[in-house]
TrEMBL record:
InterPro entries: AAA+_ATPase, ABC_SmlMolc_Importer, ABC_transporter-like_ATP-bd, ABC_transporter-like_CS, P-loop_NTPase. Keywords: ATP-binding, Cell inner membrane, Cell membrane, Membrane, Nucleotide-binding, Translocase, Transport. PROSITE patterns: ABC_TRANSPORTER_1, ABC_TRANSPORTER_2. GO terms for molecular function: ATP binding; ATP hydrolysis activity. This is ATP-binding cassette domain-containing protein. Residues 1-234 form the ABC transporter domain. It holds the Pfam family ABC_tran.
Length: 289
């Protein structure tokens, strides 16, 4: 079990932002972190790693205290069994892929983990290459492998796939699934991609204004109980145009543009940039492959 109950104030931030987060997750779970920009998602990861220190509270992983303000326990980052991957790949440019992985290995640790990670992430053809010769997707595969070299109990991912194109992103998702399946770390992953969280995670923690707003399975988290539509999509309004007597909204759904006719009574209630839910109550689509 991973138990987190921490508080931290940031008086220098606008409006005196503070974090007050309390939740428990099972070890080995794949947990999504979801919420608007500035909600405190990355701050939460920094508090878990020890890169930032809570004002009070506790953080316990597998029964071991990583932080406890009452007991005056605050393990430094190097003593917490944590791996981290960010959007930037942070590989050593003067080292080959294999050297990057070896550098992360603790002295006296079994080197077999490197070969296992090379196999899981399919890096065998890249081990002698330098980061400058790798694509973004290849660099991120190396970054994920390097984060797991020390077999951390917790792997923290801060939007690691957001800079990749959709095809590469989907491929990296499969690598993540295999990595989690074989090595079984507890993963906390920040993402704004609903499909990604739905596909990868066991549960999603919604963070808003420095607090936990909701914890649920991805199926429950992203469903709207007040809508009875058979099909529901989250979309962004890119444009609203008038065509003769009709108003047409251009919506961005996933990676596709969709045009929807608006009732004249609805037009004034929507603006470009709005995040909306598209629901179809009587819809019987055909699915093709």
């Amino acid at each position: 079990m991973i138990e987190i109950a921490i508080q931290k104030a940031f008086p220098n931030k606008k409006d005196g932002f503070s974090i007050a987060i309390n939740f428990e997750v099972n070890e080995g779970d794949f947990v999504g972190i979801y919420g608007p920009s500035g909600a405190g998602k990355t701050t939460l990861l920094r508090l878990i790693t020890g890169l930032s220190t809570p004002d009070k509270g506790y953080l316990k992983v597998g029964g071991k205290e990583w932080f406890n303000s009452n007991l005056k326990i605050d393990l430094p980052p190097q003593k917490r069994e944590v791996g981290m991957v960010f959007q930037d790949f942070a590989l050593f440019p003067n080292m080959t892929v294999h050297e990057n992985l070896k550098y992360a290995l603790k002295k006296g640790t079994d080197k077999a983990i490197i070969n296992q990670l090379i196999e899981i992430m399919e890096l065998s053809d890249l081990i002698d290459q330098y980061p400058s010769t790798l694509s973004g997707g290849q660099k991120q595969r190396v970054g994920m492998a390097r984060a797991m070299v020390q077999s951390p109990k917790v792997l923290l991912l801060d939007e690691p796939l957001s800079a990749l194109d959709p095809k590469m992103r989907q491929k990296l998702q499969l690598y993540l699934i295999e990595l989690h399946k074989q090595l079984k770390p507890t993963i906390f992953m920040i993402s704004h991609d609903i499909g990604e969280l739905y596909k990868l995670t066991h549960q999603v923690i919604g963070i808003n204004d420095g607090k936990v707003a909701k914890i649920a399975s991805p199926q429950e988290f992203f469903s709207s109980a007040d809508l009875s539509g058979k099909f529901k999509f989250t979309a962004e309004i890119l444009a609203i145009e008038k065509h003769d007597i009709l108003h047409v909204a251009t919506l961005f759904i996933g990676n596709h543009l969709v045009k929807v006719i608006l009732d004249k009574d609805e037009v004034d209630s929507f603006s470009i940039g709005d995040k909306v839910t598209v629901a179809a109550k009587a819809f019987n689509p055909s699915i093709y492959k």
